[in-house]
Specification:
Shape: elongated
Radius of gyration: 16 Å
Distance between the termini: 31 Å
Helix content: under 10%
């Protein structure tokens, strides 16, 4: 393997396993409900997510007609084990950790304010 660190190393290791971790950077899918949430993948235990509301074909099978309209992007922090509901369109999101997870800040177990 070539000399690589950080995210580049993660990409190369994933390629060796036949995976493309870059696919997790642009999640698209059906409208997430409480019963069937939208899963957002991350290599960490948390991720910043933006909800732009629904759009066209993504929601064609949704029973929620009011959600077919886009809205201003609502940003929130999605954490492992803590589903989030968009306050505008009520879409549900759940974080799916791929790999070993951990803190995106490299401070596992050191508390919220560790820097």
């Amino acid at each position: 393997m070539a000399i690589a660190t950080g995210h580049e190393r993660e990409e190369l290791e994933a390629q060796l396993q036949g995976k493309n971790i870059l696919e997790i950077n642009h999640p698209v899918g059906p409208f997430g409900t409480k019963e069937a949430p939208a899963f957002v993948k991350s290599v960490y235990d948390e991720r910043i997510v933006g909800c732009p509301g629904g759009e066209g074909a993504l929601l064609i099978f949704s029973p929620y007609d009011f959600c077919k309209d886009e809205h201003d992007v609502v940003w929130f922090r999605l954490k492992k084990g803590k589903p989030v509901e968009c306050p505008v369109c009520t879409q549900y999101f759940v974080l799916e950790v791929v790999g070993k997870g951990g803190s995106p800040h490299g401070h596992d177990g050191e508390g919220e304010n560790a820097h």
